[in-house]
Each structure stands twice: as structure tokens, then as C-alpha cells.
Amino acid sequence: MKRTIYIMMAALSGMVCMPEADAQEAKDIIPGVSINNFSMEREGKFLNVAMDIDLKDLDVSSNCVVLLTPRLVNGIDSLDLPSVGIYGRRRYYYYVRNGIGGISGDDEKVYRASEKPDDIAYSNLTEYSDWMDGATLKFHRGDFGCCHNMLAEYDSILGRHHEAFFPALMFVQPKADIEKTRSLSGFAYIDFPVNQTVIYPDYHNNTVELSKIDDTIDSVRADKDITITSVWLKGYASPESPYKHNAELAIGRTAALKEHIGQLFHFADGIIDIDYEPENWEGLREYVATSNIDHREEILAMIDSDMEPDAKEWKIKRTYPKEYRFLLQYCYPYLRRTDYRIEYKIRIFYDVDEIRRVMAEQPQKLSQNEFYLVAKEYEPGTQEFTDVFETAVRMFPDDAVANLNAANAAIRRDDFAAARRYLAKAGDSAETMYARGALAVREKDYTMAIKCLEQAEKMGLQQATATLKELNGRRKR
């Protein structure tokens, strides 16, 4: 089967590598300023920089300003994060009188030197850009006098941001269905008077048993998205009485049920199909095998023998009369049953908004491809994106592609236990081997990651080659 694959270049929370400063405390990084509890972490679309700035030892003269600025730098790219300005008395009133918010702009946090706190809890979310992977965070102090004149500058490095390696994930688009077919099945115990083939709806428990079939048909017949294509009925008789007579009863009683359903629902010709089993030996064997009846093994041997049905039934009756009477009373009535299966087709959905509605109300109507189409409307990693693939795998629990895509969604959110569970049912395709490699990368099991990625590469998956190259390059850093 030809499959469409899209590759999701995933972005995840990054790791912080800080060779120049301890992650929890970096005292006296520049004159008069200490940093505590520094962190720099990726949070979705943003990079969060947080720290406690200790200003207890910072002195600012009346005519000066000290501007403290965290600055991201990577080669020619740089970004100044919002500054903290500590203003001496004269400089502060000068800026107030002239309507100037701060030296660095409106985002600056301004304090009068005489009122500065001992500690400032600094936190800033910055929209993430690719150049920030590997960027250094510097902490800059600029001392200004009159007319924005720079009097002194100091720089120190707080840390470096490295993105955690997140391999590209490969979601497989399932083959679009030309026709969506489903079925509902069950069984009912329609009771008939001895040797009769006429249905009496009020006879014994027939009202309840007939409603099983009627309600199943009704559950799909009234749905505008569904067309019933077949109603299949198979009637069974129990083994007592001659085989020929039981065959006649099975045929006649199944035909009676067909007529009952036809009159009730007015199906077109050819929709209702019937079959029959003159004697339900399979059901008898299942009952005996799971019972504690005396001479169970001997009776099972007779059931499994090559004797003709009438001879077989007579031998059990004659050899084990007590057990036969027990079976006749407690088992045989349940051998006389009708199996039914309602087959239907569901219309194809093309509109994404309609697919969303159906997924929320009746997800069993959707094909895997329809789930896939709506998933593409969401950003990978969001709860909505994850919910689509998890709903799809609930509807198709044993399908390899459904499990593969659900596994990728789980890897995307670092739910490793769920990913392993889905991958166990995802088969052994190149895409599945790649997903196992991606999971191993996220779990930092690089030996297993390389093994799986190399296997996917041997199976012809080009993305595995690219991911192996990137993985090996990062491990050499």
C-alpha cells in the first residue's frame, strides 16, 4: 500500500548548558550585582529566561543610571531582553520631567536608586527563533551619565542554550477509503412452540429478543450518513430430534424472522440474506468444554467423532442419560438461536469542520484518513493534535498505522510509556523502526537509537540517514 508521509520538525523544551556559571547561583558576575536561581528553558514557542537579581551591593550616584540588560548572542544574531534601570536621584527626575520612560525603551523596569529592592525576580518570555539554539546569554551592565553618555560597561556570561535533540517525526497518512463499510452483530434467542416455525412476538421472552435485532437495525437506519447494505441472519437448531427435521426447523424459523424484519423495515429486495445450521454442535461443544459435567471428556470425544449427527446424539443420550437430561434442560434451549449481522456504509467526509463535529459526537463513523486530515489542521504537540490520533487509535486499536501515528504523537509530548505501548502494535515498517529510534533518542538510549535508525535506513527511509547524521553530530559536541 502506498502511503503518504509528512515529517514534523518538532520543537521542544531545550536543555540548559552552563559551563560558565552555576545554574542555581552565580555570585558577583559584574560589579555590584549577583545572580541567583538562573534558568533558561524552552516553553513551547517561547524561551523563558528567569533569575533573581541581587542588588544589595549596587551603588548608583545621583547623576547616573545603571542599566542591567540580559542579552542573547549567537554569531551575528543578538537580542536584548527587557532591561532593569536603576536611576540616581537627579537622573530619575530628569527623565520624569522630560516624559522619558527609560533609556532602553518602554519595556524597561525602572527603579529609583533610593527605592531599589534588594532582590528582583526577573522573568521574560521571548518568542523562540532557530538562531537561539546555541546562543549565549550575557548579562550587561551599562553606566550612563548626562546625555546618555556611557561611562562604563561590564559583561558576564550567564549560560548557553542548547535545544534538546528532537528528531523529526514521521506521520503516515492512511490510504483514503473508497467506501467506508462497518457492521454490527449479535445473537438473539427467538422462541417457537414445539415443531412450529411461526413467530409469536409475545411468546415467552420474544419481545426482548426481537428488540435486540430491531434496535440494532434502528441504531443505524435513522442516521442520514449511513446506508444499510445487508442484513444477514443465521438460524440454529439444537441436536435433539432427527437431523432432517432440525434442518427444516432451522430453515423455516430463519425464513420467518426474515419475513418479520422485512415487514417491519420494508427493505429492498436482496438486502436480507439468510443462512442456517441444522444442529448447533459447536455451541454444544463449547458449553460442555467449559462445564463441570460428569463424563465431560467422554462426551467431548463423542461430539468430536466422525459419527453421523443422529447417531452421535443418540449415543450421548443412551450412554450418559443423566448428563443428557441436564444438557437438554440447561444447554439445548440456548443452542436454538439466531446470529445477525447488519452491514452498512458511511458516507465520506471531506469538510474538516464537519470531521471535527463527527469526531466529537460519533468518532466511529470516521476513517483513519479523515482523522489524519483534521489532525493536520492543528499544531503538532497541542492537546487537540494529540487527541485526534488518540481517538483514531481507539477506533482502530489493532491497526499498525493508527498505532504508529499515536506513538509519534506520544513521543512529541514525551509520554514515553504510551509511545512504547502504541509501537508494540505498530508493526515493523521502516517508519515504525524510525519511530522506535526517535523514542530511544528522547529517552537518551543512543545505542538503541542508532540501531533502530540504521535499520530504518537499510529499509530505504531517507529521513533516517538525516537523523543519524544529526544525532552523531550532536553527540560529538
Automatic annotation (TrEMBL):
Pfam families reported for this sequence: DUF3868
Signal peptide: 1-23
Keyword Signal: yes
UniProt KW keywords: Signal
Domain DUF3868: 7-98
SUPFAM superfamilies named in the record: TPR-like
Designated name of the protein: DUF3868 domain-containing protein
Organism: Phocaeicola sartorii
Organism lineage string: Bacteria, Pseudomonadati, Bacteroidota, Bacteroidia, Bacteroidales
